Amino acid sequence: MELKSERSSAVDAVVEEILSRAHTVGRKELEAWRKPQREVRELARLDYVRVIRRTLDYHSLCATIDEIKEIWPELNRKQFRPKPVDYLAAISSDLRIHLQANPYRGPEGMALRGFYVDKAPKVLKRPLIYLNTAHDPAAVSATFMHEMSHHVTAKVTGRADNGVHYLFNAAHHDHLAQPAELVADAIVSLAGYPQPLARRIFATQWDWGLVARADRLPDQAFAQIRSHVRTLGGFDFTASLPPGQSFNYLTGMIHYAKLRWALLVEYDL
Length: 269
Ligand SMILES: [Zn+2]
What we know:
The chain is of the alpha+beta class. The chain has one domain. Helices cover 59% and strands 8% of the residues. It has 14 helices and 4 strands. Strands 1-3-2-4 form a 4-stranded mixed β-sheet, with helices on both faces. Helix 9 packs across helix 11. The protein is globular, with a radius of gyration of 18 Å. Bound molecules: zinc ion (ZN). The site of zinc ion has 6 residues, from helix 9, strand 4 and helix 11.
């Protein structure tokens, strides 16, 4: 098994250590995670075109897209579908990245989606991606793509930042002010909404007019997005999920959809 050969006690120790720090590092995110309604409301209102004009480094995004197509040649052309962990492990192994995929539960475990860390800790000879598999498989695949984008961006820009990039469930709002995070989220949104689909959903009769904007999702677009996510992830925001978690996934859905909308109207991506 791919995963077993990747395991090492040194890597296990690093993962444990980083996880134990998540509660302190992510105090603000955990706070937000406990009150998910606020983030949903804010993100639903925000104009993402203004957000990407302010925060997104377009050249860094283009370079990351070019490079990541070595891994996923069909990015933004065909629908990316959730993949089993074995498949993600094989990709990581090819790229000489340690992958750790385990459930991290506990009272606040679900607040954490995963993290990426460059070679910083001395025991790590290779970069490391951790995925919290307590999440829905579609969310796990999206997390993998987000973390892989960090890896690729560091490679193409030559800027290794030697830090731990945590991905918290309630951090979408914070990402809007963080260039590296927004590039990683943009890649996930291109995978989730390839261009033909993005055009169908976002370029319809309620066209954006003269001024590019991506603020409130019209009901019709929202319904299409929800149905798309249901088909893709197999989940709907129903009673089977705890309410807090439903809100978290709903926030993610709105964030990635609006980011995708903004990328289309601003850069024609
Ligand atoms: Zn990140």
